[in-house]
Amino acid sequence: MSTTATYTYNKPFKLENGKKLRKVEIAYQTYGKLNAKKDNVIWACHALTANADVLDWWKGLFGNNDLFNPEEHFIICANVLGSHYGSTNPLSINPATGLPYYLAFPDLTIRDMVAAHQLLAAHLGISSIKVLIGGSLGGQQALEWSISDAKSIENLILVASNAVHSPWGIAFNESQRLAISTDRTFYAQLPEGGLKGLKTARSIALLSYRTYEAYSSTQLESVNDKTGSFRAASYQNYQGEKLCKRFNAYSYWYLTKAMDSHNVGRGRNSVLDALALVKANTLVIGIENDVLFPLSEQEFLGKNIPGAEFKSISSAYGHDGFLIETDTLTRIIGNFLKETINKKIIKLHKTA
User: Fold this and answer.
1) Where are the domains positioned within the chain?
2) Which of 39, 107, 186, 209: CA 20 to 30 A from 91?
3) Which residues are catalytic?
4) Which residues catalyse the reaction (predicted)?
């Protein structure tokens, strides 16, 4: 059983920066059925340009015959604030003007996204999450949630993510925003504004998502006499155009800013003090040749989240491996959850 719905929170929603949205809409999808004990919730947090259909974009990990399946679990994925796919975003109507927000939309942070998720959880009557999982920007959300509401998360799985978005990551995002801002239509107050800039931004982003090896294996020319029309160039154009057909430049602009805002230490003395607040059984997975979220960032999480387990995987696809290497992720996550259950049983026997 699957449900696609939108939750409307009709009260003012206060953002971390003090600004308010008069109301927020949160698009979400659920799969499976919540059991009587309400202890079978798997909550997936999506990455930058994904949507709430986790069974579509994380195939192999989520699906009817996969580790996280609707027959056994109640799976939830909510579209983040600012995103193109149904939640309140820059193309939503601004109640003050009756027109889309565009660049009048307020800046968001990862904490604002999580606060919206928590409102949805309360609306659905969910006070405990068996597994909270996310990769990349999704991992940033999952970590923030596990700090701000530590008692509600039983198991936390962070893939290719970090505690603080790095200067390197911010530089990539700013370069993409610079590309968008060179497109004059971005300031034209039109839904299709900035798409040429977005195409360029996506091309820049791909260089951080993949690796030298990935391009060499998939875009290498089969002949030696070419002087133009290279496969790699066509690929960059194709991927840029593909995103423009399904996303908008304004959401991309604000979501990259939200990613830049990620710092669990803000207002919590330090990053280490913040990570110490995590109570969930935690598994951190890094990708050895991830350019955008280097392995050292996941090693830091594994070392400083109490009791966390750290695993690294190899992928020719770099950062995008968190979406592609689902067989490996299934094995690692499945073993982690089995061991967690066994430890829980042993603890119960000792206290009985």
Assistant:
1) 2-165+263-351, 170-258
2) 209
3) 136, 290, 319
4) 136, 290, 319
